Automatic annotation (TrEMBL):
Signal peptide segment: none
Domain DprA winged helix as annotated: residue spans: 386-432
Positions in coiled-coil regions: none
Protein's recorded name: DNA-processing protein DprA
Segments of this protein annotated with the region Disordered: 346-381
InterPro entries (UniProt xref): DprA, DprA_WH, DrpA_SLOG, WH-like_DNA-bd_sf
SUPFAM superfamilies: MCP/YpsA-like
Similarity section: Belongs to the DprA/Smf family.
Residue ranges of every copy of the Smf/DprA SLOG domain listed in the record: 88-300
Gene3D superfamilies listed in its UniProt record: 3.40.50.450, Winged helix-like DNA-binding domain superfamily/Winged helix DNA-binding domain
Pfam families xref list: DNA_processg_A, WHD_DprA
Length: 448
């Protein structure tokens, strides 16, 4: 299968070591096509604020990029001939919801029913890899119920909750031909990880869809999973956390969802179960409690009810009429001339096509190691400008006091409190909220 030239050019750009998605996004705001970006990289790389990995690679291969990347290009051609699909972010078939996030993948590799990627009725279900029997049962039940209603269930193909959610959705599809599931993986699509899910992987390829931003041949690494999580939430209208400890990678997914202005739901568990602590923390901080798929769907369908009521003049349902829709954050500015921003976004970007395998089983989905490519949405040097942080100090503030001081609605406040706690800027106490010790120390350094 021959690739379109623009998709081919985007593929080449995505394969250059050290050139990140965010760098390519910034360049795309300045140049009209990927062909022009390639030409600029070849001739002007010395004058661009690129990561040193990209500089070294372009210095050696800049005038023969296609030749240098020919082994992986040949492998990709064979893979496409066997049914693989490559979507660049300007392709009409690229997922619409994913385009809304701050740093969508430049290229997506896909196997299976790629038309599912355009579904607007999509919900993510994530949770612990070491799930309890209860967690597995809930994940499978929710997966089935969502697919039964025609929704696509998005997850990460990991052991535990992810696999159960996929299986529940597949069961509904096989029985009712309704809904299905999409697996977002952190490897090349010629790999199956974890190997225990080989049969599940095959079933999803046949009846759902498997996608990745990583080139063929790439094996899993710990820092790939947090980046995968932004795609899981980005493809979805909301995210349901089934079971998660306080150190679970699922809380990274929840943070991604908040950054992308997606709804976050959590299923309560046994209060004595450490695997439920993360879900209870999310609920305490404003995530919506879910006991069934209908709880989630009622919330996600609210904008439709609102539009219908406005069109017909009918009153909103009593349970929804006072609901406040979270305010979307302003898109972050893309400024190519800011060398620091480019350097930070390029750290370990793209890595190389040949990556080291994970040696330690504990580095998988429950890892919360920070991704060097991913930036914290609330930068330390801007914390003093955050209206919520400015009214919080050493003394504990209750939620009611924060609403009075900031003028925020409860919905907006709860979302902000959750994101600030997950990013370590604040901490919750028995009486309310206060800045974390590290944040107070940082602020003191500003006043010196």
């Amino acid at each position: 299968m021959a690739r379109e030239q623009s998709t081919h050019d985007w593929l080449l750009l995505s394969l250059i070591p050290g050139v990140s998605t965010r760098t390519l996004m910034k360049l795309s705001t300045m140049y009209a096509s990927p062909k022009e970006i390639l030409a600029v990289l070849i001739t002007e790389w010395r004058h661009l604020p690129l990561h040193k990995t990209a500089r070294q690679w372009l210095a050696e291969h800049g005038h023969r990029i296609e030749q240098a990347l020919s082994p992986v290009l040949t492998q990709t051609d064979r893979w496409q001939q066997q049914g693989g699909v490559i979507l660049d972010w300007h392709s009409p078939a690229y997922p619409t919801l994913l385009k809304e996030i701050y740093d969508p993948p430049v290229v997506l590799y896909a196997l299976g029913r790629t038309e599912l990627l355009q579904a607007s009725s999509a919900i993510a279900v994530v949770g612990s890899r070491k799930a309890t029997t209860y967690g597995v049962a809930m994940a499978e039940q929710f997966g089935y119920q969502f697919a039964e209603q025609g929704w696509q269930v998005i997850s990460g193909l990991a052991l535990g909750v992810d696999g159960a959610a996929h299986q529940g959705a597949l069961n509904a599809y096989q029985r009712l031909q309704a809904g299905s599931t999409i697996a977002v993986v952190a490897t090349g699509l010629d790999q199956v990880y974890p190997s225990a899910h080989k049969r599940l992987h095959e079933a999803i390829c046949n009846e759902g869809c498997v996608v990745s931003e990583y080139a063929l041949g790439v094996v899993p690494r710990a820092n790939f999973f947090p980046r995968r999580n932004r795609i899981i939430s980005g493809l979805s209208r909301g995210i349901v956390v089934v079971e998660a400890s306080r150190k679970s990678g699922s809380l990274v997914s929840a943070r991604c969802a908040l950054e992308q202005n997606r709804d976050v739901f959590a299923i309560p568990g046994n209060v004595t179960n450490p695997q439920a602590e993360g879900c209870h923390l999310l609920i305490q901080q404003g995530a919506k409690l879910a006991t069934s798929a209908s709880d989630v769907l009622q919330e996600l369908e609210y904008p439709v009810f609102e539009r219908q009521a406005q069109a017909t003049g009918e009153a909103l349902p009593v349970s929804l009429e006072n609901r406040t829709t979270p305010i979307a954050k302003e898109p972050q500015q893309l400024v190519l001339s800011q060398e620091k921003a480019l350097h930070e976004s390029d750290v370990a970007a793209g890595d190389s096509v040949q990556s080291d395998p994970i040696q330690d089983d504990h580095c998988r989905d429950d890892s919360v190691q920070s991704d060097p490519v991913q930036e914290d949405p609330i930068q330390d040097d801007h914390c003093r400008d955050d209206p919520l942080l400015m009214v919080m100090g050493v003394e504990v503030c209750t939620a009611d006091e924060l609403i009075v001081k900031t003028g925020m609605s409860w919905a907006e406040l709860s979302q902000k409190l959750l994101m600030l706690e997950l990013t370590g800027k604040i901490r919750s106490t028995q009486g309310g909220y206060q800045r974390s010790l590290e944040q107070r120390n940082t602020d003191r350094s500003f006043s010196v």
